Amino acid sequence: MSQSLFAALQALVGARHVQSSEEAAPYLTDKQGRYVGQVIAAVHPASTEEVAAVVRACVATDTPVVVQGGNTGLMGGATPDASGRAVLLLLDRMNRVRAVDTDNDTLTVEAGCILQTVQEVARTAGRLFPLSLGAEGSCTLGGNLGTNAGGTAVLRYGNTRELTLGLEVVTAQGEIWNGLRGLRKDNTGYDLRDLFIGSEGTLGIITAATLKLFPLPKAQVTALLAFDSLEQAVALLSHARAGFGASLTAFELLSAECLALLREQFPDGPRPFSSARQPWFALLELSDNHSESHAREVFEQVLGEAFEQHLLADALIAENLAQSQAFWQLRENMSDAQKRAGRNIKHDISVPISQVAAFVAHTDALLQQHFPGVRHYTFGHLGDGNLHYNVAHPLDATVDAHMAHYAALSRLVHDSAHAHGGSISAEHGIGQRKVNVLGRYKSAVELDLMRRIKQALDPLNLLNPGKVLEDMRP
């Protein structure tokens, strides 16, 4: 059957756009090298109609379909399993800009578009598409939609879901739903758009989206702030929200341990606060729609009040674009710094902002009790309560010995996040990495509703089986 399906796929999209499992090897291992899959074929369709035809061919042969964007995910959600039964659908040829509407402030693009390209198209039109994350030069819009990506500007603009007005989706039956409406109000039934966003390719295959655009800010001001405690950082965030209002774009947290790691792994990189003793730092950015002078005036006023109220230990305000970029380089280099230092156990958790300090204090102490000497590299999006709570090996232990504790250590972290009213996945998704632990933190009612939705939309369980929910194949 696999040979006849391979030939059928070649007929549908062209022989040169269908690869064998051996030819598709670069797509079959996830970004972190944890998962390696096999496939009947990897297919590169050029249109939504071709995607639909491929899905119909797979339905006819009871063949699972896994869709992949830029392969930058961290949960193995876009990697097929090792059975070799699936077809891998790659949307890299579907990268066209279909429409730019500056009067409606919308942009319609296909799912294979690189996020950075989407940003550049918007900027060329005199607009801003604010979704921004470390992998923006290689991740695709489809992957961003599939995981409801967050990034550094969620505080002001929201997650990918909030930035999306309409979708085009190929269903599990190979039908095409054209929901590419540029409407901000459409109260005509169930919100199918929000159902597909964040579903990691398990309910339908997103092929295009209509996105919200925003005015380009006339000025941006960046500062690196130092705090005597995490509680002080949270208090300053509240003060900044009140003072800056909607102009507050980013509030990115870095621990002193993170800055020390950055200095160690990037000795030629920026070294602000190199002699500071404060335990916490934050990168704050203000986007102003008036002028540079107005932005700086408001910035200095709000931070001045913060000093008077003892909400801030120190501050470095970027005087120019180069200094601003240097500050942001610290945040952007965190992933590479950790990679250079050796693997660590990563967690993408969220808790209410009011619980961040309590969560960190409790969880740090808990891990030291159970795994003495582990090192904490905590950073992330304090403005929306999303922390990348990463844990490195003790200096007197090996990386492999530390990684052997992955399940037990992560359970403590996830239990703590849950106890503080949080989530075990803020922006990275569930994929296959967390699928077996989801039942510990979701109620029976929630899981049953999720399974019923999956069963209704994909009754044969052919779309990305074994991701988000455990494999439901009949």
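Above is the first protein from milestone M3; the second protein from the same milestone is given next.
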Amino acid sequence: MTRNVEKTRLTGACAEFVDERLAGGRVTCPLSALVEQTGLSVTAARKQLLRLGSRVVRVSPRQQFFLIVGPEHRAMGAPPPAWGLADYFGWLGHPYYLALQSAAEAYGSSPQALQVTQVITDVPRRRITVGRIRVQFFVKRSVEKTPTQPLANAFAPFRVSTPAATAFDLIRYAPRLGGIERAVETLAPLLPLIRVPDLKQVLEAEDETATAQRLGYVFEIAGKTGLAKIVHGWLPSPLALASLASSKPDRATGSVVERWRILNNAGNLGL
């Protein structure tokens, strides 16, 4: 009799665990946590998760990490990616932050509809596609040095690069974002949000002279002379010549802006 009662209890353990997580604002379900809390075996836990159908979805065939899909997100096939970032990277044991155009979008800068969520972490990772959700990973070895902050009024806590760090990253990764023109288009609405102390912190943390040259030049042509002055004061001397559009191989075309030692091979950036 006791054995039957125990079997009945375990039969609904997975569904109960998922409901409790969702009620508590968690949209993630690591298999290890499910096993630990319910007493189910790994095999039994996996089978029960499969029985839940579209209520849960696996992040990757190689990973025992699941997302809980509430009724309002069934059409997308997954909850918003940012909601599970902290849990996912905590489970992986690696640092991360919401970055680049996704971070800019979180601060209200979205000149073009973004079809993918961009995350920076410390090791290469394959792109994740779950339902209609896509997550793209960028690598930065010094990711833990980058200034981040929690996003105000977010449904779930996660780290996002500060506006100053977002601007720096946009310039650094411009070749992978569609070019310097696209990066600057995203960066422009962030300019009023960048504070001098945060910019100084980013320059010291990232310590990338060529990226700082490009960013300082962008600040200057955007009319942000105060921010440009901070960058110029940080730069070492003498400066090596850096192309504004680093993805363009021809360094022989364009004019040189001596103050920044920038070869403007991108033309008018529209600022």
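Note on the second protein: The CA atoms of residues 196 and 227 lie 7 Å apart.
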